[in-house]
Amino acid sequence: MRKRDGKKNIKVRTPHIKQESFSQQENDTSLSEEEVKEITEKQEIQLDEAEQAVAKQKSKKKKISNLIFFLINIAVVVGILVYQLLTQEVMPISTLLNSGFNFWFLLLTLVIFGLTMLTETARTSILVKHTSGKWRPFLSYKVSAIGRYYDVITPLATGGEPFQILYLKNRGLSAASAISVPMGRYVLAQIATILMCTIVLIVATTTDVVGGVNVISVAFYIGYGLNLGICLVTIFLSVSKSVGKKLVGWVLKFLKKIKIVKNYDKQYNKVLKVVSDYQTTMQEYAKAKGKFVLLLFISILQYILTYAIPFGIVCFFLGWRPDLFLQVFIMGVMIEMAASFIPIPGGSGVSELSFTALFASLFTEGTLFWALIIWRFMSYYIFIIQGIVVIMYDYFIGNKKYSWLKRKWELEAESAEFKEQKLKNYQRSKNKML
What we know:
Number of strands: 2
Shape: globular
Oligomer: single chain
Order of helices and strands: EEHHHHHHHHHHHHHHH
Number of helices: 15
């Protein structure tokens, strides 16, 4: 092959079942040796960082801190119960069970939760198929469940991606596929969140659907501003690499000067890695616009379903009230965004207090506390239970099942190779006879 600038170009062909590219539209790509080396090194660094993050989460110290945060969350709920018992009426549980409330609406909340996991599984399945060439829906569900589990038990919901990367890698996906699937999930969720929060912001500020300005709405504006800022800065840095590097350097130097950032080089490389991953993902989406639109639609649908769960809780206590859907939906989004910048797993404390403040006018006669308990279970504890169930399933069944599946694939590959070799030998012997 012709040399250019003293660099020898090599042809990289990736097989269908072990594809190293995010996109399947271009299986054959011409890369220089240096580019191949750079890509490989980058993937190794990302896998190493994921392994370190997972090891840190599994350490004894981290488990203790997660347990403490979990107990804090429970303590906050107990504190709110005590406060309500001292200041207002709380309906006894015996009265609640015999009150005539329609428990079918609680079933509806579980159905909606199931639909949220179905949409997330569908999104992950499409990403897995797009990167590896195989439909693996059960794996996609487990990856989604594990991602949500570690998101809710880590501060600022940052723990899901490293576990997903290693889980996919250990389940037979290539390094590139294992990295790109969680990154695609992150990008799509971020875009869907900003789009929907922008709509909620416009509706909340132009109508009186949630009342006037209060502490929760101010926290919502702050959370929205921070998330929008992060999204826009990431996109800007992804578009302009040279300007982006300078901007990152200036910001981190300033943060180091005011003692917020300690290790400049580590943070600099970390930010640029995120920006590079974001840019790579967006470039690949540009090659498959139809798939990107489908995935974005699924992400928006999942977002709507997630914040429709409080509506089922409202209907349980108040009966079928479709006129309250928009108000309840907006309040649910505001609570989530208000707690998004609190560095405590699950936004403990802020989430409960926000729910109590916003929904106090809807739940009367001592039902507010029970509404809070049901909502907190559906928005936090259920993900922990689901994650533990998946982890236990893998421990007792899933890991063994995958070992057999892996061996089956190896035998199939050996059989295909044997058949191909036999065919070649037959062709050779036939040519000699002729």
